[in-house]
Records
---
Amino acid sequence: GAVVSQHPSRVICKSGTSVKIECRSLDFQATTMFWYRQFPKQSLMLMATSNEGSKATYEQGVEKDKFLINHASLTLSTLTVTSAHPEDSSFYICSMTSAGGVGHEQFFGPGTRLTVL
Amino acid sequence: GENVEQHPSTLSVQEGDSAVIKCTYSDSASNYFPWYKQELGKRPQLIIDIRSNVGEKKDQRIAVTLNKTAKHFSLHITETQPEDSAVYFCAAHQTGKLIFGQGTTLQVKP
């Protein structure tokens, strides 16, 4: 149980284009969804937190107009990187907490490797 | 906000030895402390967690201790094996989100 999928697993795009990443819970309903960014050899940095039907809460330093988060339903969240640039190249990971879960455990997606040329 | 410091950044041990990774946190309101193992290019995998009402928890070769007064918690891996080699992250839960430590690269030499 508590399986999270993320697509695509890898994406290469040209500078200036937009990329959408999907995060889905396959066997549970998610109360809260999180998006993280992880640069090589670094830790996970929280970008934003979202609940269904409400606007995402962005962490300090994360541009909300550049990283668009849509919490479409209790099982789906999307992250769109708009006008991507090489410095946006990173490993993007989503996670979710379960409505039926215990405490604060987060279930992570497998991640998306974004490369911007 | 919460700040989590993790040490050491790298740790090399001989197979069969024990490994200890330590984290400190700043916000006394933090109440949940998970540990994750992450292999290259993969998602973080929860290996053990502890809540603030417990001082120690053990699961086979892995244990975590929590000292709320000192605001630090530690991961202990006994009888290490080469497959334990990975990056380990501690985290602290504060106001609905996890704050991660910087990570420890553990290398277990056969």
---
Amino acid sequence: KAGVTQTPRYLIKTRGQQVTLSCSPISGHRSVSWYQQTPGQGLQFLFEYFSETQRNKGNFPGRFSGRQFSNSRSEMNVSTLELGDSALYLCASSLAGGNSYNEQFFGPGTRLTVL
Amino acid sequence: DAKTTQPTSMDCAEGRAANLPCNHSTISGNEYVYWYRQIHSQGPQYIIHGLKNNETNEMASLIITEDRKSSTLILPHATLRDTAVYYCIVRVGDGGFKTIFGAGTRLFVKA
């Protein structure tokens, strides 16, 4: 069974631009969560989508947004990029979402560099 | 803030058991304890989870204290490939995932 895939794997942007990252969950998984990982802040939760609805949200500014499609694939968008947005962006999928016994499976991440 | 506290780093000799502790004194009755690990620049990998009973799988064992305020992840025969950051997490949020990661424990397995 294929794992979580994320595209692109690497991305370089300049300040002020916007970026869209994509995540394809494991087949049958309906919950997709996004995380940002930086050396200074560690792994931080961005948001979670389940059945095309945002169900949980972390403490990030409105420049960070996401959506989920009917096939459970998800995208996240960052507008007006800042240098501090340089990070590894990780996507994780889960079978049902919300049930404590369902583990999350992480993708390899997208490494975003903002110049 | 993360609901768990872990040592910043630990060393372990190759072939020996690695015992990684985690404190989660404010855990709620319906929250599970999960362990993940992250090898440099890769996505975190699920290891094991439990509620109150000890658990074992092909990767590790999880020992949860009776009061559920702490747990220990045991890698029975550590190898060099087990060098990674290990995260202990308790699941937060109702009806959805809002996983809060702490800083984790950096485990160095030495030959």
